[in-house]
Automatic annotation (TrEMBL):
It holds the Pfam family Laminin_G_3. It comes from the Bacteria. Residues 92-231 form the LamG-like jellyroll fold domain. This is Putative LamG domain-containing protein. The keyword DNA damage does not apply. Coiled coil: none annotated.
Length: 243
């Protein structure tokens, strides 16, 4: 009898390892924005209200109404979180993931970024540029210092009109993209940290400019102050399926 119980517990443990669950394996994000009706933000270590600026809630990848951020660039629509901080010190490790449904892939369109217009402070930006993912970051937060910022683009090209899971993992200047749970390009940079700052977090653009605005749907934007491994991203993508 004891042997049977031990075997059953072992089987459950192995199942958890082989099939990670979002709530357990990836339960330590700094913030997660689900856009599920009024509860648009979950798991915030530093809670801040999510402000919809001419944006509305739309249908997510599973057909659930009012469960994704719907953006039209002609309206300068975005979601904003004022005074958002990833931490009190520079970030040497970082990750961000999201589900996106772009209507078009032309131009430069922000998925999520930290930018303040009053002092031109920017920590990072994950965007789509002409069909590829693009990640920009600064160790000082100031865009005028070319020695302290860098950017990387993915090899993989996204598909317009389709839901895609995208992620980028950063560790001491090493950057790796993931598209639908699969690893993409890996790159290294001499810019080895990201400035946290108190700039607003913009989802789908930033409130200061009319450029770089996303056209489509964004959902489940999640940020970590640590990198993600390929198995974690694969599990995150798999957990996002619709029953």
């Amino acid at each position: 009898m004891k042997r049977c119980l031990v075997l059953m517990l072992l089987a459950l443990l192995l199942d958890g390892i082989l099939h990670p669950v979002w709530g357990e394996e990836l339960s330590d994000p700094v913030a997660r924005f689900t856009f599920d009706g009024p509860a648009m933000a979950q798991g915030l270590q530093r809670p801040k209200p999510v402000l919809l600026q001419r944006a509305v809630l739309g249908t997510d990848r599973c057909g659930r109404m009012d469960s994704a951020l719907q953006l039209y660039p002609v309206d300068h629509a975005l979601a904003q979180v004022d005074g958002f901080r990833m931490g009190d010190a520079v970030l040497e490790t970082f990750a961000v993931a999201a589900w996106i449904h772009p209507r078009q892939l032309r131009g430069y369109r922000a998925i999520v970024e930290k930018f303040a217009a009053d002092n031109n402070q920017r920590g990072f930006r994950l965007a789509v540029k002409d069909g590829k993912l693009r990640f920009w970051w600064s160790s000082t937060g100031m865009v005028e210092d070319p020695a302290e910022y860098d950017s990387v683009e993915s090899d993989g090209i996204l598909t317009p009109g389709a839901w895609t899971h995208v992620a980028v993992s950063f560790s001491h200047g090493s950057v790796r993209f993931f598209i639908n749970g699969e690893p993409d390009v890996r790159s290294s940079s001499n810019v080895r940290s990201i400035a946290p700052g108190v700039a607003p977090l913009g989802i789908g653009g930033n409130p200061a400019t009319t450029g770089f605005l996303f056209d489509g749907l964004i959902d489940e934007v999640t940020l970590w102050d640590r990198p993600l491994g390929k198995d974690e991203v694969a599990a995150l993508y798999a957990a996002g399926g619709c029953e």
